Amino acid sequence: MVGTGYVGLVAGVCLAESGNDVVCVDVDERKIKTLAKGEVPIYERGLEEILERNLREGRLKFSTKLEDGAPDADVLFIAVGTPPGPGGEADLSGVFAVAKRAAGLIKEKAVIVIKSTVPVGTTDKIREMIAAQCPHPFDVVMNPEFMKEGAAVDDFMKPDRVVIGTSSERAARVMTELYEPFVRTEKPILRMSIRSAEMTKYAANAMLATKISFINEIANICEKLGADVNDVRRGIGFDSRIGFQFLFPGLGFGGSCFPKDLDALVRRAGEESYEPRILKAVQEVNRAQREWMAGLVAGHFNNKFTDPIAVWGLAFKPQTDDVREAPAIDIVKSLLERGAVVRAYDPVAARNAEAVLGDKVIFCDTAYEALGGAAALVIATEWNEFRRPSFERMKKLMKQPVIFDGRNLFDPATMAENGFTYYSVGRKTARPGL
Ligand code: NAD
Predict the structure, then answer these.
(1) Are residues 215 and 113 in the same domain?
(2) Is 142's C-beta closer than 6 angstroms to any atom of ligand 1?
(3) Residue 32 in this model has a pLDDT that exceeds 90
(4) 143 CA → ligand 1 middle, Å
(5) pLDDT in tens, 226-254
(6) 122 in a structural domain
(7) Are 375 and 308 in contact (CB under 8 A)?
(8) How high is the mean pLDDT of the chain?
(9) Domain CATH number, residue 395
(10) Residues 333 and 280 in one domain
């Protein structure tokens, strides 16, 4: 398993758990040292326990050298990062570098599996690259990953489906054998072409991102027209054709996947002279949502910040320490640029946020500590611990009882009764006594 990020580490550890011998390889020496001690450098529920067990039982090894894993491997997964390049295209240098190195190391009939999310056509290129250097037959598979950060172990262990893109019968059999322990509840293993497998990953993320931007657009219209988006959400969500998932209005999507994968898909379509109109609108609505929140806060204070602003939540979503493309980070940056002092709290993402925001933000150890002397609170991530706070205690700590709830955690009428001015997404602003 090459690459021990969120995907590679979880996949490697889970494959060891089902009885395979796994060598996880990464260029990041510090990460490999940490992992070899049985410590997990990311926050992912349930991962540490399985990692420790498999290390102890000798099925899992960590190394910085491809030579330690590739020559013996029946299956070699490439799960390195494909971050956005300067023009929005996926940066494939890591994937290509691993493929080139692996070409000289793999054994006969090895199966090379591309697990990283790569633009349509990339896996074919990788096959050509390896074929140019590898003296014996090998197979190539595109096997996109659909796990969610925060629930990655569960998702890998119990996937809704597994997608195997390959033209090789033999490789399809090897992959089926590898994944069978994870699909015992009759979930399908879907065999398709390499290009369809590459596209499936982009289409899945584009659909989910579209749902989020859709409900945010509906929320914005609700607010203008005096409707309550939460009622509307429920009104449509019970329709089984629509459903509730990914239909929560908020500050939009972030993370290391949706924004980057949408960018890459828009770009790839453009290269084929296709204008992806829906996808571009999804991006635009998403960008506007975080700008809207920063503007709302600034507008309330007429752009003059005399007291600090508290921010709850820095991760791009709950249950993760990942702050890549997090709406919270952009909102904090925008508040800082407008001259606000920011006191922030996140249960697990503060360290990663600090690496991005530096010492310009006061990082607090508890949610209540962040409220000390604050002119307002912005809720940017819907961590469970924010859902039932003591409003009395909050009011005592804050200079002014003002909340900008970017995740619609509370009922506006209750907030008004508790004496708060309460802004939320797609609902009427509540004011004390109203
Ligand atoms: P990540 O940034 O967390 O980790 C990538 C790892 O690859 C890092 O540890 C890095 O050191 C390592 N790496 C980079 N170049 C390397 C090289 N040449 N040799 C060895 N190691 C190298 O990335 P991630 O979130 O795990 O994502 C990996 C891929 O999976 C991406 O293509 C991503 O789009 C896709 N994906 C991510 C998720 C997710 O939820 N994070 C879900 C599905 C798919």
Answers:
(1) no
(2) no
(3) yes
(4) 14
(5) 999 999 999 999 999 999 999 999 999 99
(6) yes
(7) yes
(8) 97
(9) 3.40.50.720
(10) yes
**Structural domain range at position 353:** 201-434
Calpha distance 241→19 (Å, rounded): 39
- Choose the catalytic residue: 14, 134, 222, 257: 257
The span from the CA of 265 to the CA of 88, in Å, is 9
Read off the amino acid at residue 112.
I
Q: Is the pLDDT of residue 301 over 80?
A: yes
Q: Is residue 157 part of a domain?
A: yes
- What ligand 1 atom has the least distance to the C-alpha of 9? 26
Active site residue 364: no
Taking the CB of residue 38, how many other CB atoms lie within 10 A of it?
Answer: 16
pLDDT digits (tens, 9 = 90+) for 399-417: 999 999 999 999 999 999 9
Last residue of a domain, one of 157, 192, 227: 192
Q: Is the pTM of this model over 0.90?
A: yes
Please name the helix (run of DSSP H) or strand (run of DSSP E) that holds residue 21, with its range, or none: none
Q: Which atom of ligand 1 is nearest to the CA of 115?
A: 30
Residue 1 lies in a domain: no
Residues 253 and 325 in one domain: yes
Contact present, 344 and 332 (Cβ < 8 Å): yes
In this structure, the answer to whether residues 146 and 246 fall within a common structural domain is no
Assess whether the C-beta atom of 98 lies below 6 angstroms from ligand 1. yes
